[in-house]
Amino acid sequence: MVAPTPVVTADWFAARIATLREASGRTPGELAAALGRSASGVRHFESSTRLVGRRYLTLVLEELGHGHLVGPYSTVIDRSRARTLWWQQILPQVKRSEKPAELHQLELLVNFESSATAICCYAPHTVPDLVQTPGYAEALHRIAEPALPELHRALLPGRRAILDQDEPPELTVIIDESVLCREIGGPDVLTEQLARLDALAERPGVTIRIVPSDAATGVEGNFSLLELTAELDDDPGAVFVKTAADWVHFREPGKVARYRARWSALLRHALPLEQSRETIGRLLRRRHAP
User: Which Pfam family, any one of them, does this sequence belong to (predicted)?
Assistant: First the structure.
């Protein structure tokens, strides 16, 4: 079982405690008084990006009448602390108050991708990051350079490597058929990219579905829907949307649910699995034909 990273666990725990407090009918001030702390301190723990200590974890859960959760929640936090974070040597270490928004979002993205048990990607315009070849990714950067381009380049190999780890997330990708004909980087780059998709489709944990060019799917950009371990009680999952400026993410249950509904609708438009694989293979063979 993949352990969530400290950032992801802290984000989940903060939201979880806020939910339990609200369910008890208490305000931050009332809970603070019961714990002998300040209301601002309680609000800090409910919005923190740092892992909570064992003492506060025990105090707040017992006060809210959920002492039975101390054991399992402590296990999650301990497993998070033991995680190896490959991106720490790549991302600059900047105080949260001084961190640019695009850097913060990029850091969140690699944390959530590395914590995910399942990732669903929709790509209407380009092949999504996690299944790009290096040549395709570099060509795409030249066409539309992202914010913090050097960091994106440095992080991409590690992000794609999650598919090769001992416990990779289940990956489902929906790609518009037009993307498979768009020669980003030229014909050789696209041929290599198609071969990569064809090979990935053979893996048991990877599903690639193609949306026909004539399907009426609506107008929208790409998004990734990430599911996290069941250890994180009532976690809604996360959605990341790639924009021209940076990544935007959503954790609110209602917003995540809307993307789940949109994903289900896109699946209804997509070709069946075998037909999708046949489409990739046919396009690849056509490019190899004399």
Answer: DUF5753
At 94, give phi and psi (nearest 5°): -130, 140
User: 166: number of CA atoms within 13 Å, CB side?
Assistant: 3
* Dihedrals phi, psi of 145, to nearest 5 degrees: -65, 125
Dihedral over Cα of 273, 157, 142, 222: its sign: positive
Domain with CATH 3.30.870.10 in the chain: 100-288
Q: Where are the beta strands (DSSP E) in 105-179?
A: 116-123, 170-176
Structure tokens at 12: 């989940």
Q: What is the DSSP letter of 213?
A: T
> Which pLDDT score is estimated for 218?
61
Residues of the chain with CATH 1.10.260: 6-81
What pTM was computed for the model? 0.93
Q: Is 211 helix (H, G, I), strand (E, B) or coil?
A: strand
133, two tokens: 């070849």
Structure confidence by residue, pLDDT tens digits, 117-148:
999 999 889 999 999 999 999 999 888 777 78
Query: CA 73 → CA 70, 159, 215, 232, distances in Å?
Result: 5, 27, 45, 8
- Paired sense of beta strands 247-250 and 238-242, if any: antiparallel
Token representation of residue 76? 């999650």
- Structure-token pair, residue 83: 């995680």
Place domain 100-288 in its CATH homologous superfamily. Endonuclease Chain A (3.30.870.10)
Q: How confident is residue 48, by pLDDT bands cut at 50, 70 and 90? A: confident
| Cβ count near 272 (within 10 Å) | 10
In sequence order, the β-bridge partners of residue 30 are none
**Choice between 97 and 269, residue whose per-residue pLDDT is larger:** 269
